[in-house]
TrEMBL record:
PANTHER family per the UniProt record, alphabetical: KELCH-LIKE PROTEIN 32, LD33804P
Protein name (record): Kelch-like family member 35
Domain BTB: start-end pairs: 42-109
Listed CDD domains: BTB_POZ_KLHL35
Top-rank taxon: Eukaryota
Length: 362
């Protein structure tokens, strides 16, 4: 331990001030912690999860607003030699006391959540923030579901939004991990109904089937409720056949037959079959649009080849492929399974005469 000195002369007398630096403070904290562990000079005992922790009230109050309020007010714990704490594990309390006494703590994936819970309950904000930062730096496809629920429980909005963004953008990767397979049914239903997932309906069907097949005996009865949340009519026909019609559990489920039949009818009759399951998911990349094809100018003379489309959800107009043969008119247009067919084009008199004489000459 080194000392720094600073001399000055006042009234003919020399005065020297010195500072031992941060090492002295660290030494004091380490000594206090050794006193805590040996029960020396302690004046209160914390009972946590069946374990007892002798402590110094002054140190607890200096580190935690919770204890400062408890020991400096009219609470009955102010005079009691033993204070019981609920909702904290003994391991987390031991870690928290190490931090209170020495200002340092090793966080890892195993202890960070329990340490945060203790720090949050006992109002040690500097440690709470350190735990949140630790978690934010380790959000991944394999843990974002659990961390999102954890962040929601403790109102940690930045962490929750970070997990949600990863989930919505990369759900296809998230469902490959064990955390998804261990979700309860209610959570899976919530995910399958989520409009913000940026995936195709085929990915969601794959997710539902993967979750069921992970524990088929206890989950096969949930098939109807799961697939009812999905847009089976909008599935690619080849995927529908390979994933659903060839799945043994799906074919055994009698309750699923109306849903499967609805999907088959939609493939035959298109938009004549209407239900909540025939409307595209908001973030699926599909959207209902209105096409305006061809027409003429405001004077009624010039034929227009323009094709414009209106996105019903966003209200945005954009250009589509131009209509070939812009001099034609009086055509009909219809839609079938997201394809537009144009037929019955009538040629103008001049063009008809031109084509007629060309055929005669040839």
């Amino acid at each position: 331990m080194g000392f720094s000195t600073n001399g000055e002369l006042m009234d003919g007398r020399s005065k020297v001030s010195f500072c031992s630096g941060s090492c002295h403070a660290e030494h004091i904290l380490q000594v206090l912690n050794s006193y805590r562990r040996s029960g020396t000079f302690t004046d209160v005992v914390l009972q946590v999860d069946g374990c007892e922790f002798p402590c110094h009230r002054a140190t607890l109050c200096a580190s935690s607003l919770y204890f400062r309020t408890m020991f400096s007010s009219s609470f009955q714990e102010n005079q009691q030699p033993v204070v019981k704490l609920q909702g904290i594990s003994s391991t987390a309390m031991d870690n928290l006391l190490d931090f209170m006494y020495e200002g340092r703590l090793k966080l890892d994936e195993e202890n960070v959540e329990s340490v945060f819970q203790a720090a949050d309950q006992l109002d040690v904000p500097v440690l709470s923030r350190a735990c949140v930062q630790f978690l934010q730096e380790r959000v991944s496809h394999s843990n974002c579901l659990g961390l999102m629920d954890f962040a929601s429980l403790y109102v940690l909005q930045p962490l929750q939004e970070q997990c949600q963004t990863l989930l919505y953008q990369d759900f296809q990767e998230v469902l490959q991990h064990d955390e998804f397979l261990g979700l309860p049914k209610a959570r899976v239903l919530e995910l399958l109904a989520c409009e913000r997932l940026q995936v195709t309906e085929e990915v969601l069907v794959t997710a539902a089937l993967r979750w069921v097949h992970h524990r088929p005996d206890e989950r096969k009865q949930e098939l109807r409720e799961l697939l009812e949340r999905l847009r089976l009519p909008l599935l690619d026909p080849a995927f529908f056949t390979a994933a659903l019609e060839a799945d043994e559990l799906v074919q055994e489920c009698v309750e699923l037959r109306p849903l499967l039949q609805e999907a088959r009818m939609y493939r035959v009759f298109g938009r004549e079959v209407q239900s909540e399951r025939t409307k595209p998911r908001r973030c699926s990349g599909w959207a209902e649009v209105i096409f305006v094809i061809g027409g003429c100018d405001k004077n009624g003379f010039s034929r227009l080849s323009f094709t414009e489309k209106l996105n019903v959800s966003s209200g945005e107009w954009t250009s589509a492929a131009a209509l070939p043969g812009y001099s034609k008119s009086e055509f009909a247009a219809c839609e079938l399974q997201n394809d537009i067919y144009v037929s019955g084009i009538t040629m103008g008199v001049r063009e008809w005469m031109k084509n007629y004489f060309n055929q005669m000459l040839n």
